[in-house]
Amino acid sequence: MRAYWAVVSARLRMLLQYRAVALAGFGTQVFWGLIRVMIFDAFYRSTNAPQPMTYEDVVTYVWLGQAFLVLILWGVESDIRQMIRSGTVAYELLRPLDLYTFWFSRSLATRSAPMLLRAVPMFVVAGLCFGMRPPPSLAFAVLWVIATVGALFLACALTTLLSISLFWTISGEGLARIVPSLVAILSGMIVPLPLFPDWARDALDFLPFRGLVDVPFRIYLGHIPLEEIAPLLFHQAMWTAAIVLLGRWMLARGARRLVVQGG
Fold it and tell me: What are the residues whose beta carbons fall under 8 Å from the beta carbon of 148, sequence distance 6 or more?
C-alpha cells in the first residue's frame, strides 16, 4: 500500500500547485451556480403547488453541487486515453504494481486536489453571500463527511471503469462524452432527485449514481432521517465494491486480449 499512497501523495502535491486554474474554475462555478439559483427561483415563483424541497434547501443543494462538481464523472484522464491509443499502456502492465489500484489511486488524487482547492472557498463565499446554509446538527455534518468520502471512492471506481473500457473502443471519445452527461442527470447534479416524477424515482434510487450527489447532499440538508442513513451508506458502499470488482474483471480480460504494435 505504501507505493499506492506515494502515487496519491505525489500527484496530489503536483495538482495542488495549480492554484490559478482552481481560482478560474471557482469563478466559473460561482457564475453557473448563480444562473442555476435564478432558474430554480423562477420555477418556485411560478407555482404554488407544494414541492418536496423548499427553495432554501434547493439553493444550498445547488451550491453543494458547485463545490463538489468533481465528484461527477467528467471522463477519462487524457494521459490514460493516450497510453491506450498509442500502445504505451504496455509499460503500465510491466510495472510491479496492481494496475487497477494504480489507476484508482491516480483518479483519487485527480479528484481530491480540485475539490480541496474549490470547495473551501465555495463554502465561505456561498455561505456568506448566496444563502447556503450549514447542516442542521453536528450528527448530520459528520454523516455528510462520511457520505462525501464514500461518494469520492464511488466516483473513482466509475472513472477507473470508464478508463478500462477503452480497451474495447477505438478512441473512447463517445463514452467519454456521453457517460458524464448521463451521470450528471441520474445523480441529481442537474435537478435534485426529489424533484423528479414519481415514476422515475424507484430506478433512480436503485442506480449507483445517487450515491455521488443525492445521498451526501440530502444528508447535509437533514432531509434524510438519521435512522435511514445507514442503509443508504451501505447501498453506496455495495455499489462501489461491485463496480471495483467489475473493473478488475474487465481489466483482466482486456489485458489478455491487448495487442500492441510489434508484439
Answer: 68, 71, 216
Of 25-29, 36-40, 172-176, the range with the lowest mean pLDDT is 172-176
74 compared with 54, residue with greater pLDDT: 54
Quote the CA–CA distance of 119 and 135 in Å, as a whole number: 15
Q: Print the SS3 string covering the chain.
A: CHHHHHHHHHHHHHHCCCHHHHHHHHHHHHHHHHHHHHHHHHHHHCCCCCCCCCHHHHHHHHHHHHHCHHHCCCCCCHHHHHHHHHCCHHHHHHCCCCHHHHHHHHHHHHHHHHHHHHHHHHHHHHHHHCCCCCCCCHHHHHHHHHHHHHHHHHHHHHHHHHHHHHHHCCCCHHHHHHHHHHHHHHCCCCCCHHHCCHHHHHHHHHCHHHHCCHHHHHHHHCCCCHHHHHHHHHHHHHHHHHHHHHHHHHHHHHHHHCCCCCC
Q: In the chain, what are the domain boundaries?
A: 2-257
pLDDT in tens, 90-124: 777 777 788 888 888 888 888 887 788 888 888 99
Among candidates 76, 56, 89, 108, which has minimal Cα distance to 173? 76
